Amino acid sequence: MVEINKKNQNTGPKSVRRFSYQRQGDVRVLHKTSSPDNIKKIIQKNNNSNIKDLSTNTRKISRGSYRYGNKKMPKKPKMEVSSIQPKTSFIKKSNPIPNPGKDVIRIIPLGGVEEVGKNMTAIEINDDIIIIDAGMQFKTEDTPGIDYIIPNTTYLEERKDKIKGVFITHAHLDHIGGIPLVMSRIGNPSIYSRNLTILMIKKRQEDFSHLPPLKRNVIEKNSVVKVGNMVVRFFGVTHTVPDSMGIIIETPYGLIVNPGDYKLDQVDGKTTENEEKEYSFFDKEKVLLLMADSTNVENDGFALPEIKVHEGLANLIKQIQGRIIIAAFASHITRLVKIIEIAESLNKKVALDGRSLKTNMEVCELAGLFKPKKGTIISIEDADSYPPNKVVVLMTGAQGEEFAALGRAANKTHRKFNIKKGDTIILSASIVPGNEVSVQHLKDNLTRHGVRIISYRTSEEYVHATGHGNKEDVIWLHKKLNPKFFVPVHGHHSMLVAHEEIALSLGMSEKNIIVPDNGSIIEITDKGQKIVLRKEKAPSGPMLVDGFSIGDEQDVVIRDRVMLAKDGMFVLIATIDPSSGKLRKSPDIISRGFIYLKENQELLHQVRLIIKKTIEDETFGRNPINFDNIKTALGDNISKFLYQKTAKRPIVIPVLLSI
Fold first, then answer.
1. Contact 491, 294 (CB under 8 A)
2. CA 649, CA 355: separation in Å to the nearest integer?
3. Neighbour tally for 76: CB within 10 Å
4. In this structure, what are the phi and psi dihedrals at residue 141, rounded to the nearest 5 degrees?
């Protein structure tokens, strides 16, 4: 049953728009198919509800925005095989996790506390479970060929009958990216979030048309939702995407609060009136547990307010005489909307380039967050049709991605747009750790075109600000909420520890703080008087998504890819006389990514001798011949020899022909 308190509600586009601008500021599983028409039958209806059924919105959003490394996915034929279960061989069945005791509050971070990404947390009280976020993480060097990584949902799959709802804090991929596959694995419970976030989820789901339709429910920041016996409230937070919100879970012992990703809307350390109003709710409330973002806790001071970036970009757009190209994260929606508004006020045209950027702007317009004048947005092909000082181009690719719009333009492989001498490139994004070399290559390629480059490191004007709170933002939140218990989330372990140190410096007792790992089982017991970390852990190995396959990181195909990328492959082709067990001719050898055959003839000669001797030893006196044993022996002997001679371990593939 879902109950909504409609008090002080305003769910129309006007209220959404007001919230946006008052701050200025990522094994094989086969899924049974289901018709999108069934969504109306799935979503629970309540006469007193202010939840909107998004399936009634008939306006079609164009396809092709969220394709992360697997463009063939939408073309995958639908299958109706429901009996095949996900691979779960890495689960320790011999050590089951007991259910929480009566009135015990269990918190399990399933992702997002050993990395930046794939955020997901489960809250379990008695017979009810609710989930906060279901994000993804992009592939790493250790997972070549993988599309992305999602949290491990095994604990939830085993308790799917207890799951009452999934609450999403905002529309970034590290919070919504895993939804299509996660929801299908945990029983497809109802999803609750604000309008823009729900529309983004709907858009992403279009690339997974073979999966069951989602039960999407739009709530507002003043809504009160009852799912099972749990009551959930919300509050607005400042972030780089509109409609961001924090989650409040009511318990008999106080509130559990998760603000999602946030920073303060402040100037010189003084929060704005609107920001104070958003958090005034906590002045009279008892906060039992705070789970707060740790991404930027190692940065001193307050995070730069987004309004400073808007002012800086406005000044640059007014001052620069030639054509302006701005590269930014497609997820920084508030900033992108503001850039379009600034250009429009100066009678400039705006060209959008980049699939995710176009999609996000389209969804924002659908959500009523902005409405450009007719003729303001032009196609990238028409950018050359206007005077250079009348055009602003918004592009993806600020991180140096090879196939992003700006990268293709810099490499002269863009089919519809050319960078020209005299253009000004504004990189409105910080460099993500690990992308330093890619960004430098991008800047080198751009400067060969005779352009001027402005970045957050070189500009006197502010062109970028983070969406996560710095140390002072974090301190302000702790003082405002004054929680009894604290669990840092959203970040690498060192970030969580730094956040713990901040809480300790504010007087919180060490016994009231738990720094978790993915899968940690945290419980609040003794009627809200004690917080403990259980010795058991929920399965936490990351789930790797490769097309329609999902497996854990020990899957043999991933190990093979890593080995191939590191040391290559070495193929042996030997023809054996089955009657005598002897070679009919000298073995053929194929090498890829290991050695250059023409320059290693002596090594190949020795390999052929080992092949000959191994086959003779394995076939001597044996009738019939066991080809499997020969392959195993060849693989072992050749691998050892090659490592001794080259210090490399290529994948050795013996191929035996019986003639």
1. yes
2. 40
3. 13
4. -65, -25
Rounded Cα gap, residues 306 and 525, in angstroms: 41
Matching residue, tokens 């490769």: 546
Write down the number of H helices and E strands in the chain: 17, 31
Under 8 Å CB-to-CB from 478, ≥6 apart: which residues? Answer: 290, 292, 486, 502, 503, 506, 508
Q: Count of residues for the chain?
A: 659
CB-based burial label for 259 (10 Å; 0-12, 13-18, 19+): buried
Low-confidence ranges of the chain (pLDDT < 70): 1-95, 140-145, 547-549, 551-557
Query: What is the β-pairing status of strands 377-378 and 349-353?
Result: parallel
User: What residues contact residue 595 under an 8 Å CB cut-off, 6+ apart?
Assistant: 568, 603, 646
Amino acid making up residue 462 = Y
Residues marked as catalytic = 293, 468
Q: Which helix (H) or strand (E) element contains residue 78?
A: none
Q: Classify strands 105-111 and 120-125 as parallel, antiparallel or unpaired.
A: antiparallel
CA 240, chain centre distance (Å): 16
**Residue 46, SS3?**
coil
| Per-residue tokens: 141 | 């060097």
Q: Which two tokens stand for residue 496?
A: 């969580």
pLDDT tens for 431-477 read: 887 788 999 999 999 999 999 999 988 888 999 999 999 999 999 99
